[in-house]
Write a structure and sequence with these properties.
coenzyme a biosynthesis; alpha/beta; two-stranded antiparallel sheet; binds adenosine-5'-triphosphate; 8 strands; acid-amino acid ligase activity; 11 helices
Length: about 260
């Protein structure tokens, strides 16, 4: 019998999933994505994205490896140093970690901006409402009065005083085209993605190869611990971080089940 035979896939509420289940995190994640689709927050394609992520997380051992933790600390330092940090929210992010993204925004002084691949006014509004239900005050992304260069019209829409003007952007679970276009705008890009070979982490200044449900609370914990750090200390953390090493360590863990770390 496999793990999935022990818990029905269509539980009404995630509290019904036993915490000691060997694939607990995966079941929670799937349940939240399904609920997101039902609520009009997550596109059906988000389920496929989640499936890909789930396979990589299985191979990572569903844990935050040391290089991912180092990346999460560097991400916290970047966000604290930033003049205009923005956290980008898509349908999967909103379904999986709404209150956690609000907590990270609070801990770092960042703005939240809804930014969708499959953009409809209804989904934008549903996500903004969902974030407000989870404690957000201001949600950007509805104005869409600026464009990211080198992307097709609909996919490029952002707020002029949000992602467009940001110096540091957190873009979790992002598609490669947009991550590349943001990279070309010379922003500091922090990407959360379980596939280290995907284009988004490959172009990121800080690639975080970890499940978003672990990564975001960990970045927030680091940001809180660094709240009183001076600029020199934060800059040292940023400079110490080695993006190539982080990508290699994650790939090695996924391919072999071990790391040198
Ligand atoms: P590319 O970046 O080359 O366009 P892709 O087409 O696989 O790659 P998308 O499907 O747009 O990218 O993005 C989904 C990405 O998010 C995948 O790389 C997937 O591994 C990752 N992902 C899915 N669920 C999670 C999660 N819970 N936490 C972190 N990453 C995730």
């Amino acid at each position: 019998m496999n793990d999935y035979d022990t818990v029905s896939a269509d539980v009404e509420h995630e509290d019904e999933i036993p915490e000691d289940h060997p694939r607990y995190q995966d079941l929670i994640t799937r349940h939240r994505i399904e609920a997101g689709v039902e609520k009009g927050i997550t596109h059906l394609q988000g389920m496929h994205a989640e499936g890909r992520g789930s396979a990589f997380d299985y191979l990572l051992g569903e844990e935050t490896i040391p290089s991912a933790d180092a990346a999460e600390r560097a991400a916290a330092a970047h966000l604290l140093l930033a003049d205009r940090p923005v956290l980008s929210i898509n349908g999967n992010v909103a379904a999986l970690v709404p209150s956690e993204m609000v907590a990270l925004a609070d801990a770092t002084g960042a703005d939240l901006e809804v930014n969708l691949f499959n953009r409809t006014p209804e989904r934008l509004q549903a996500i903004a409402d969902h974030l407000r239900e989870h404690g957000a005050d201001e949600v950007k992304g509805l104005e869409a009065d600026a464009h990211i260069p080198n992307l097709d019209h609909e996919r490029s829409k952002v707020d002029a005083d949000g992602i467009y003007a940001a110096d540091v952007v957190l873009v979790p679970l992002e598609d490669g085209d947009r991550a590349e276009a943001l990279d070309e705008m010379d922003k500091t890009e922090i990407v959360i993605d379980l596939n280290p070979l995907s284009r988004s982490p490959q172009v990121a200044d800080v690639p975080i190869v970890d499940n978003i449900i672990r990564a975001v609370p960990t970045i927030t914990e680091h940001a809180r611990a660094l709240a009183d750090a001076d600029e020199d200390e934060l800059r040292a953390i940023v400079e110490e971080f080695d993006r190539e090493q982080a990508l290699e360590a994650a790939e090695e863990r996924i391919r072999t089940g071990t790391t040198d770390e």
